[in-house]
Amino acid sequence: MNWLQQLLNGISVGSIYALIALGYTMVYGIVKLINFAHGDVFMLGAFIGFYAITVLHLGFIPAILLTMAVTSLIGVLIERVAYRRLRNSPRIAALTTAIGVSLFIEYTTIYVRGAQPDVYPDLFGDRVIRVFGATTRVDTLVILLISVLLMLLLQWIVHYTKIGKAMRAVSYDADAARLMGISVDRTISWTFALGSALAGAAGVIFGLYYTKIDPLMGLIPGLKAFVAAVMGGIGSIPGAMVGGLLLGLVETGVSALGFSLFRDAVAFIILILILLFMPQGLFGKNVREKV
Amino acid sequence: MLSLEAIDVYYGKIHALKGVSLSVDEGEIVTLIGANGAGKTTLLRTISGLVRPKNGTIRFRGEDLTRRRPEDIVALGISHVPEGRRVFANLTVKENLEMGAYLRRDRAGIQADLERVFALFPRLKERLRQPAGTLSGGEQQMLAIGRALMARPKLLLMDEPSMGLAPVLVQTIFGIIREINAQGTTILLIEQNAHMALGVARRAYVIETGRIVLEGPSEALRQSEKVRAAYLGG
Predict the structure, then answer these.
(1) Per-residue model confidence (pLDDT) at position A52
(2) What is the per-residue pLDDT across A201-219, written as a single tens digit (0 to 9) for each?
(3) Domain of B50?
(4) Strands in chain A per DSSP E
(5) Does B104 lie in the same domain as B135?
(6) Pairing label, strands A118-119, A212-213
(7) Closest approach of chain A CAs to the CA of B90, in angstroms?
(8) Alpha carbon distances (Å) from A129 to A8, A11, A144, A286, B177
(9) Residue B233 has pLDDT above 60, yes or no
(10) Does residue B117 belong to any structural domain of this protein?
(11) Are residues B161 and B145 in the same domain?
């Protein structure tokens, strides 16, 4: 065991959380809704990637791209069908609906393909790479690389494209944005598309890393990504990234020290502590970067 | 250019605008004065499409605006400087101005209008990369006006542009309003500062509890006993 190796593992796991957390935080930033179906979009991503590789025989990168395209459509559809009408309803209505959508996706998936798990094809084999004396699996590095690329891409979209600026404007003040001629509906659709694409990519990466996927696999990573988003300050994009990485590092650290049974508990203890002492999260409120 | 006919607006059970009719001709500055809660802001929000009237029609250059979406109304040439400025504090000054031109595709025209805004408000040019939230109140008002101008509107709706500003700045802002109008933009101005508003506008309307109670040339309203007593401090 080697600390660098653990660090790499922690960052890889953390970047999966971060990718999912970004969707939570972006959607919350713009419609103030905790989209509890988000973890299930991640699950669908894992399956779409799985079928793209095994049935369509796509390579890893085309499979991820296809998955992201499909999950972004699914995200847009979910918002359109389930959430849009509830935008001005009490929050509890939207929240309940989100839980309903989550269950609907999980059990439709089970109905369609059964509840049995699938095993991801081993794309990178058992090849290991030595980095500064630490040995690490190739897929750990692939996860890292892809996550970093996607997060950079997201930052670029949010800060330098028209739609990204519109997303930030709408999340800050939707009515003022409408007075600029910005279509709030379309901007919200884009937000769901981006968040769901990232969750889809996270699903494929997760499948590659943990190999086993099943229709209820979105629950725990979804919850943990939610914890990560709250840790970072819900609504804050950098917060979701940092929160995800932090959570991954803590979990790997706890496991590495031999307390792997407490791994999940530690994640939620951290959530409780943060909510008690830093209810805004690490990047919340003071950083007015809400998307 | 703009005409409202018998507009009724309700917020739930509250009858906020009661049969309001009003018109603005091309090239004019028209002001709407009235106390807090009289319905001034509601009227502008109704024109912009943020609030839907229950009855009545709004026409703008031959188009029926009633029940159109805000983004369509912006596209037809009406920009709205909202009450309390409402700049995007998390965006830079430059990005705020870009949002003003959101529906436009003509890069050259946008650039030209950006220069025009800088000519009106040189301060904004100095603060281009700063988040709008770090600007002073007066600068934010300038940004809100500049942002609205970036849509190159034919009609500019302004909601209390002098609110909360130091007297010197109020003078500046009203100078700017005149200049924007002189450059060819028609303006419908809401103000609590009736003195200044009647000074700059050609015609005026007085609104009380959702109803237009007086209208006429600014000069005539300025002489009216009622207006003097209620809005000009005797």
Answers:
(1) 97
(2) 999 999 998 999 999 999 9
(3) 1-77+156-233
(4) 118-119, 128-131, 134-137, 212-213
(5) yes
(6) antiparallel
(7) 5
(8) 12, 16, 14, 41, 67
(9) yes
(10) yes
(11) no
CA nearest neighbour of A42 among A61, A12, A62, A22: A22
- Tell me the pLDDT band of A15, cut-offs 50, 70 and 90: very high
Q: Does residue B175 lie within any of the structural domains?
A: yes
- In this complex, is the C-beta atom of A174 within 8 Å of any C-beta atom belonging to chain B? no
Chains A–B, number of C-beta pairs less than 8 Å apart: 70
Residues of B with CB under 8 A from a CB of A: 48-50, 69-71, 74-75, 79-80, 82, 86-91, 95, 98-100, 102-103, 131, 133, 147-148, 151
Please, is B187 exposed, middle or buried when counting C-beta atoms within 10 Å of its C-beta (0-12, 13-18, 19+)? buried
Nearest to A176 among B69, B86, B151 (CB): B86
Among B152, B174, B201, the domain-final residue is B152
Q: How far apart are the first and last CA of chain A?
A: 40
Q: Are B178 and B66 found together in one domain?
A: yes
Provide the CA B132 distance to its chain's centre, in angstroms. Answer: 20
CB contact under 8 A, B99 and A166: yes
Contact B91 A166 (CB under 8 A): no
Selected residue of A180, A182, A184, A185 to mutate for chain B interface (largest B Cβ count, 10 A): A180
Verify whether the Cβ–Cβ distance B71 to A289 is below 8 Å: no
Residue-wise pLDDT tens digits, A115-150? 999 999 988 877 788 877 777 788 888 888 999 999
Say whether both B51 and B91 belong to one domain: no
Distance from CA of A181 to the nearest CA of B (A): 4
Q: With contacts defined as CB-CB under 8 Å, which chain A residues touch B52?
A: none
Candidates A173, A178, A183; nearest CB to B88: A173
For residue A283, which residues of chain B lie inside 8 Å, CB to CB? none
pLDDT tens, position by position, A20-38: 999 999 999 999 999 999 9
